[in-house]
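Example for tutorial group B:
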C-alpha cells in the first residue's frame, strides 16, 4: 500500500502493480463470489471477475428483465445463475449490488444467509450508513467491506475490455476475520479497478450523494439549462445554443480536461477564452459554494436518504420517474441535442 501526497494530503492508495491479479486470485481462491443484482453495477463487476478467473455466480429474481440479461451475457441457470436466495446460500462473499431500494427489500433474505465467516460486500455505503432508515445492520461475525467504482458499471466493463480501469474507493466497515483488508483489495483489483483509494462507508455515501446531486448530474444539468435558456432568450438559435452549451464541452473540452487537467485546457484555449474564464470562475464558485454546503448538510442529516427511500417505496414511482425523464427528453434543449448527435460524423 502506497502513501501518496495529493496537494499536501497523504492518502493510502493501492495500485495493480503492488497488489496484482495473481495475488488477488490467491486471496480469494476458496471463495464463491455471489453477485446479488444484475442492474447498474452487477453486469460489469460480475463479468470482469469472471474474465479475471474468479469463481463467480449471479443472484437475480427469476423471470425479470435482468434475469434475461444475465442469460444473454452467458450466465447459465442452475450453474452460475440462481435466484437470489440460492445465490445467498451458495456465496461466501455476498456482493450486494442491488439498488438501494432493492437492498432494503431483500435484506431479510440476505441477512438469513450471512453466517459466521462470510463476507458482505457493497459498492455504496447507503444501506449501512443510514441503517436506522434501511434496517441494514450486518451481524458482527462477518466481514463488511466496500469497493465503489467511480463510474457506471457500463464504464467499468468498457474500460476493462480496453485494458484500462475505473478508479475505485475501498473501505472496511467490519473485520471479523482479521483478513477483511486483503479481501477488499483483492475484490477491488478483481473487478478491474484502475487504482484503489481509502475511504469509509460514511464518507463514500456522503461524497456520492453530493456528487450525484451536484457536479456529476444535478448541477451540470441545471447549468446546461440555465445557459441554454439565456442564449435562446437573447435570440440565438437552438443549434447555436446547444453547441455552445453542451456539444463543445462534452466533445472537445472535457476530454482535454480528463487527459491533461483544467490548467492545461485553460493554457491551450484562446487568450480571450482564458481571460474570461479566469475572471468569471470565481463568481460561479462564490454563487454555488453555499448551495453545495446546503446540499452536503442535507445528505449528512439523512434527509436525502429519506427522500430516496420514500420515493422508491411508492407503487407509482416508476411511472412518475418515466414522466420526469420524458419531460427532460422532450425539452427543446435535449430534443436539439438528439438532432445534433445525428449530425456528428460517423467514426
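The residue assignment follows.
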Amino acid at each position: 500500500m502506497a502513501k501518496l501526497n495529493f496537494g499536501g494530503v497523504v492518502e493510502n492508495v493501492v495500485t495493480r502493480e503492488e497488489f496484482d491479479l495473481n495475488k488477488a486470485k490467491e486471496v480469494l481462491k476458496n471463495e464463491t463470489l455471489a453477485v446479488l443484482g444484475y442492474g447498474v453495477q452487477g453486469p460489469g463487476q460480475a463479468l470482469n471477475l469472471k474474465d479475471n478467473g474468479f469463481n463467480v455466480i449471479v443472484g437475480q429474481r427469476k423471470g425479470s428483465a435482468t434475469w434475461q440479461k444475465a442469460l444473454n451475457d452467458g450466465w447459465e441457470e442452475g450453474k452460475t445463475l440462481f435466484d437470489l436466495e440460492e445465490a445467498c446460500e451458495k456465496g461466501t462473499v455476498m456482493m450486494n449490488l442491488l439498488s438501494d431500494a432493492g437492498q432494503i427489500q431483500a435484506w431479510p433474505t440476505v441477512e438469513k444467509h450471512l453466517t459466521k465467516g462470510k463476507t458482505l460486500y457493497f459498492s455504496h455505503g447507503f444501506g449501512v450508513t443510514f441503517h436506522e432508515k434501511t434496517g441494514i445492520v450486518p451481524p458482527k461475525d462477518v466481514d463488511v467491506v466496500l469497493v465503489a467504482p467511480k463510474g457506471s458499471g457500463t464504464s467499468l466493463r468498457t474500460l476493462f475490455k480496453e485494458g484500462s480501469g475505473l478508479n475505485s474507493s475501498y473501505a472496511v466497515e467490519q473485520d471479523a476475520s482479521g483478513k477483511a483488508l486483503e479481501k477488499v483489495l483483492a475484490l477491488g483489483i478483481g473487478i478491474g479497478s484502475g487504482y484503489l483509494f481509502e475511504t469509509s462507508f460514511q464518507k463514500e455515501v456522503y461524497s456520492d450523494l453530493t456528487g450525484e446531486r451536484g457536479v456529476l448530474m444535478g448541477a451540470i444539468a441545471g447549468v446546461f439549462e440555465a445557459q441554454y435558456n439565456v442564449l435562446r432568450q437573447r435570440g440565438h438559435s437552438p443549434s447555436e445554443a446547444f453547441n455552445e452549451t453542451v456539444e463543445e464541452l462534452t466533445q472537445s473540452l472535457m476530454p482535454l480536461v480528463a487527459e491533461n487537467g483544467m490548467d492545461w485546457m485553460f493554457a491551450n484555449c484562446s487568450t480571450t477564452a482564458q481571460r474570461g474564464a479566469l475572471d468569471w470562475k470565481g463568481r460561479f464558485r462564490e454563487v454555488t459554494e453555499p448551495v453545495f454546503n446546503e446540499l452536503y448538510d442535507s445528505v449528512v442529516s439523512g434527509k436525502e436518504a429519506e427522500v430516496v427511500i420514500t420515493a422508491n417505496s411508492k407503487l407509482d414511482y416508476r411511472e412518475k420517474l418515466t414522466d420526469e425523464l420524458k419531460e427532460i427528453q422532450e425539452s427543446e434543449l435535449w430534443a436539439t441535442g438528439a438532432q445534433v448527435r445525428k449530425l456528428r460524423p460517423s467514426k
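The mean pLDDT is 95. Compare this with the pattern of hydrophobic and polar residues in the output above.
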